Fold this protein.
Amino acid sequence: MLTRHIAHSSPHMLFEFRGLEALPCGCVVADYVATLLSLDVAAVEAKGPHCTVRHHGRGSLLTPDELGSGAAAAWV
Ligand SMILES: [Zn+2]
């Protein structure tokens, strides 16, 4: 049941924070799990000073595919 994943948080908390990851490009992303979908997502928390990826803006959402091979969040 999905409900056990959100039992400890408010009904409005759709994303559960999992941790921070540093990307190869230098950006720092926060990993989240969308609790209702069991879907991993990541949001850019800080843009790396040398990052050249245009869509890595602060607050941008990234899919696991965009995080590189195995370095960050994975489908589990
Ligand atoms: Zn970047």
The chain has a mean pLDDT of 79. The beta strands are 15-22, 28-34, 39-46, 61-62. The helical segments are 3-6. DSSP finds one helix and four strands in the chain.
